[in-house]
Amino acid sequence: MFKYYFLLGVRSLRRNPALTALMVLTLAIGVAASVSTLTILHVMSGDPIPGKSDKIFIPTMDIGPLEGYVPSERDADDQLTYIDAMNLLRSDQGVRKTGLFGTTYALEAGRADLGMLSVEGLAPSRDFFAMFGVPFKYGQPWSEDDDKKGADVVVLSRALSEKLFGEADPVGKRINLEGLPHQIVGVMDKWRMVPKFYRLIGGPGAFGVQEEFMVPLSTAIRNKSGHSGSMSCSARRAPGYQGLLDSECTWIQFYFEMNAAGERAALQNYIDNYSAEQRKLGRMKRNAPNKLYNVMEWLERQKVVGNDNRLSVWLAFGFLLLCLVNTIGLLLAKFSVRAAEVGIRRALGASRREIFQQFLIETGVVGLAGGVLGLLLAFGALALIRTQSDDLATVAHMDWTMLGATFGLSLLAAVLAGLLPTWRACQVTPAIQLKSQ
After folding, report:
1. Does the N terminus or the C terminus of the chain have fewer Cβ atoms within 10 A?
2. Which residues are in the MacB-like periplasmic core domain (predicted)?
3. Is 50 a member of any domain?
4. Which of 284, 301, 318 is the last residue of a domain?
5. What angle do CA 191, 180, 174 make, to 5 degrees?
C-alpha cells in the first residue's frame, strides 16, 4: 500500500500546481535557512582530529607574579614561556610533543617576476607533522638531528612550492629566508585542519589558511626569528632576544600526544610536580592550579563557537517553524477541497487509519520535493556565504551528514505540518458528504 499511496501523493502534486508549488517553496526556504546555519555550526564545532582529540593535551600554567594576585577561573596562561616549553620538550612524557610559535619571513624568490615575498609560517618541533597527520607531496619532515642542531631547513606548503617552482619537486633546493639560505626537505600536500585548534591564539584564527612554510623551532630560535602572534609578559624582561628567552613572557604554544586518553591523570601529575620544582627555583609563586585540556575542551575554552553562532541557528529554526505554520494552513486548504473524495472512500469501506496513512504519505511527498528544492537553495546560500570572507569559505561546505540531515529535516517538517490537516481529513463524516453531492 505504501507504493500505491506514494504514487497517489506524486499525482496529487499536479492537482493544484499553484498551491503545491507554494507549499514546496515555503518548506524549502525554511529548510534551506536552517540547514545553512546548521551546516556552518556543524563544521565550526566539529572534531578537527578524530581518533586523537581525546589523546592530545594542551597544558596551561600560571607564571604570573604574586603581587596583586586575585584567583580566577582563567588564572593559567594559554601559552608557555620559552623556559617551560623547552623543559617539557626534554621530558619523557607522551609519545609525541611539540612546541611552536608563528613567524613571518621575507622570502627571496630568486625570480624577477616575484621579487621579495612576505610569507606566514610556523616554527614547530619535528613531532608536529606526525602528531597532526600532515600529508606530504614531496620529501618528508626534517630529521631529529636537524631539530637538535637547529639546521637551516624548511618545509613548504604546496601552494608556495607551486608558486616558486611550479609542479617540479623542489626537495634539495635552497631558498633565502630572512637573508639566510634554507634547504627544502619537504612539501606539504593540501591539508587544512578545521577548526585549526593548534593555532587559535594570535594566529589567523580557527579557520585561517594553511601556513606557507615551517622551520624547526630550534632553527627559528637560533636565527632569532621574530614572533608573529600573541605574547603576554607579566614582568619586565631584559632587552634583546636572549632577554625574551629568559623572561616570563608566554608566547610558545605546546601540545602533548599520549598513548591513550586514560593517561591524562599521569600527565596532570607530572605537570603538577614540574610546577612544584619550579616554585623551589623561585618561579610560579601563585601556586595556582595547572590545567590540561584535550582538543574539544580547548576549542570550548577558546570559544571557537560563540553564542552568536548558536543564536543564528535558533533564529533559523524559528524561521522554519514559521514556515511550518504556513505549510499547515496550505495543507488544510488542500485537504479540505478533497472532503468529498474522503467521504466516498470512507463509504466504500476505507478506515480512518487508511485515510490517515494516505494523506500522511502525501505530505511526505511534499517534504521530499521541498527537500530537493531546499537542498539546492542551501547550496546557493552556502556559496553566497563563502564569498563573504576566507574564514566563512572554510566552514560553508556541506558534508554527507548535513546532506542526509537536509532530507531528514524536510521530511520531518512536512510530516509535522501534515499531522493536523491529516487528522482533520480523517474526521470527515461519509453520510454528510454523500448527501451534499
Report:
1. C
2. 20-224
3. no
4. 301
5. 55
Predicted TM-score (pTM) of the model is 0.79
Q: How far apart are CA 234 and CA 253, in angstroms?
A: 17
Answer yes or no: do 9 and 97 share one domain: no
> Quick one: 278 and 361 in the same domain?
no
Q: Strands, E, within 157-226: which ranges?
A: 174-177, 180-188, 213-214
* Domain presence at residue 357: yes
Q: 324: which residues sit within 8 A by CB, 6+ positions away?
A: 27, 30, 413, 416, 417
Local structure of 236: helix, strand or coil: coil
Gap between the Cα atoms of 297 and 400, Å rounded:
25
What residues does 116 pair with on adjacent strands? 108
Segments of the chain with pLDDT less than 70: 1-14, 72-75, 306-307, 309, 332, 334-352, 355, 389-393, 421-422, 424-437
How many whole angstroms separate alpha carbon 189 and alpha carbon 257? 23
- Placement of cell 560553508 in the chain: 396
Domain end call among 257, 273, 301? 301
Helix (H, G, I), strand (E, B) or coil at 381: helix
Q: Is the peptide bond before 59 cis (omega within 30 degrees of 0)?
A: no
The CA-atom distances, in angstroms, between 420 and each of 185, 333, 426 are 67, 12, 10
**336 and 392, same structural domain?**
yes
Residues 323, 230 share a domain = no
Decide: helix, strand or coil at residue 324: helix
**Which residues share a beta bridge with 159?**
none
Element (H, E) at 203: none
**381: domain range?**
2-45+306-435
Closest by Cα among 148, 93, 156 to 120: 156
Question: Which cell numbers in the block locate residue 169?
Answer: 619537486
Is 51 inside any structural domain? no
